[in-house]
Amino acid sequence: MKSNNNTKLILLHPYIQKQGGSNRLWLLAFVSFFTIAFLLTLIYTRETSPVKAITTTMAAGSASSSTYGSNAPLPTTVINTLLHYASRSNDSFHMSHAEIKPISDALRKCSSPCNFLVFGLTHETPLWKALNHNGRTVFIEENRYYAAYYEELHPEIDVFDVQYTTKMKEMRELIASTKEQIKNECRPVQNLLFSECKLGINDLPNHVYEVDWDVILIDGPRGDGPEGPGRMTPIFTSGVLARSKKASSAKTHIFVHDYYRNVERIYGDEFLCRENLVESNGMLAHFVVEKMDENSFQFCRNHTSNSSASSS
To answer: Band of the pLDDT at 111, cuts 50, 70, 90?
Structure first.
């Protein structure tokens, strides 16, 4: 009996081991299969994802560049729409369509990229930036706090603040002192960065004086009241910048807003010159000023008309 029992035990023992080994082999095979499958899936995903991302990015970039070319001008319909809504704003200080249109036309005819200098932050500031698409637009503002606020509100806008030292009640004295220094500090052709002329702006960043400005708009600073800074300095400065161009021989389009007022009209005639006035609708005057030789010492060819305008 012992031997039979032992025999049964001996026969059963190998059977149990065989069955257990088979199960473990199947389990090992099952786990190995899914491990390999997982690794293959992971490797395939990592290899194909960058390709898809690059392809998608290239396609998007190609579509973007083809739709909005780096040097493509704004379509006429877009420009007309901008002018339409800007001139119909509820803001009481906005420009009319008749005032905006000549400036827009000058920017459209300007060679690309166009250099546009604007004195004053106004209701139309975003419009000027948009109309000079792909060009350089720089704004000069008298209020440094408003300039900082505006630049924070619109990071795409380049604003520089300037401290005006002139007063409107001094406008005739300033013209007289400028004429006395016309062959020295107040020359028509010079680098204002190094000038001590009372009417010249000399504290802007250096690169502002190095740019050949194609279009200049004077719509600031304040021109109300005898203690206000007036626009004498921007008008004189614009005239010098236009006559002192370095590389470009193209004429400079200078627009003076609120031309019906005494300061704007007298200083416009004195330093931008009546013979350069091509258009005026009362509110906006359009001057076209040519580059001059550095040895020139007069702003205007016709002194008679300017003298009568200054004394009026």
So the answer is: confident
